[in-house]
Design brief:
152 residues, mainly alpha, 8 helices, 78% helix
């Protein structure tokens, strides 16, 4: 009997440790956008391993966010509070079937995030210096650390 109680308790604790809140999922939407932007910035400084790690992190965070959105696991207040408006623009496919899968939606989010950064880089006097400065300003190294932890 004691073994059964302990097993049940351990199962409940492990489920609680892996459950995500609505806010967690909304933050994943924000992380996806930021990681896609950071991957574009680091690409300009020619660090391909870091670019790939940030892209993969953004993709993974975005997939979980979109899945939660599709399942109704994200509260509207959390979305409004945490998810960038540019990401919300790309969520219209939940209403219309223009982009039928999560991969298409993530591609649209990635393209928008990348385009917004590239427009800024291309209009700067020193693109590489601008990219390095923005990488630091946007705290991309913190996202990179999270991305590297996820890869392990």
């Amino acid at each position: 009997m004691l073994a059964r109680v302990l097993t049940t308790l351990m199962l409940l604790v492990s489920v609680a440790a892996f459950s995500q809140t609505s806010q967690d999922y909304a933050l994943m939407g924000a992380n996806a956008w930021a990681a896609f932007q950071c991957s574009t910035l680091v690409d300009k400084t020619e660090r391909p391993d870091e670019r790939q790690a940030l892209f993969d992190f953004g993709y993974q965070q975005g997939k979980m966010f979109l899945q939660a959105m599709g399942n109704g696991g994200v509260d509207g207040a959390d979305v409004s509070r945490h998810v960038p408006i540019a990401v919300l623009d790309k969520l219209q496919p939940f209403v219309s079937p223009e982009l039928p899968t999560a991969d298409f939606r993530l591609g649209a989010i990635w393209e928008s995030a990348t385009r917004s950064i590239l427009d800024s880089i291309e209009s700067s006097a020193s693109p590489i210096l601008f990219a390095a400065s923005e990488f630091n300003k946007r705290n991309c190294s913190s996202l990179l650390a999270s991305a590297m932890r996820e890869q392990r």
